[in-house]
Amino acid sequence: MKYLILLCKGFIIGIAKIIPGVSGAIMAMSFGVYERLVSIMSRPTKIRFLDIVFIFFLGIGAALGIGLFSKGVKWCLNAFYFPTILLFSGLISGGLSDILLEIKKDKFYMTKILVFIICFSLIYYLIDIRGINIQLKNNFLFFLLGIIEAFTTVIPGISGTAIFMALGLYEKLLNIFEKVSCFNFDITIFMFFLGFIISTIVISKVITYLFNKYKSFAYTGVLAFMISSLLIMMKKAFSFNFSIFEFFIGIILFIIGALATKKINNLFSKFSN
Questions:
Q1: Would you say the pTM of this structure is higher than 0.70?
Q2: I need a surface site. Which of 90, 115, 188, 235 has the fewest CB within 10 A?
Q3: Residue from 43, 40, 34 nearest 13 by CA
Q4: What gap in Å lies between CA 84 and CA 191, rounded to an integer?
């Protein structure tokens, strides 16, 4: 049962990964698997059997979510953007209470407020990189794509899909995924995964260090990332035209999403003990 729940968490994280504006890492944090995941990625030479099982079920779930729902999510965003975004906002919001519990374990409230403000501002004000277009025609471009994918995958609050769209590189990323799904491997795929793997290990080591040494401060930063991401998502959702019916459906889906995250986390905690 524990691994079935883990599969479900990976499934939802995979769906979140393909939605512009939604961070897969934030969803992983909401589901309580983020800290263990980055810890595993930070020590690739010391992976235990239980770690392999954990990554296997989470990864299979994520792959299924991306593979089965990529077209469906795109259709929902085009046809019912407001309710769809509110559903994922609810899924993220459901994990906020668990993050707050981690933050309350230590004092240093003024320092935490400062950390919150800095991290919130970093995402909310600096993540908008409109007008930038990277033009590289050699293999280094794909190495760079791997580095960007690692940053947006591991760091909570940053939507990889949104970043690649802003950089004008989203189509190239989709081409890479298409090649992998068709087992069409070449030098560009190698360069992409080389950049991704190296960057993932380095970033994971830094984040794991922060969680080990400054856990409550690390969670404070993550909380800031989550709230700023939610505000960005909601701001964009309310900028679209929607009907009264869609509004009420969106509110209902938001509540369902928040309750679903709480329920899934509680079940996972129960079967983990």
A1: no
A2: 235
A3: 34
A4: 35
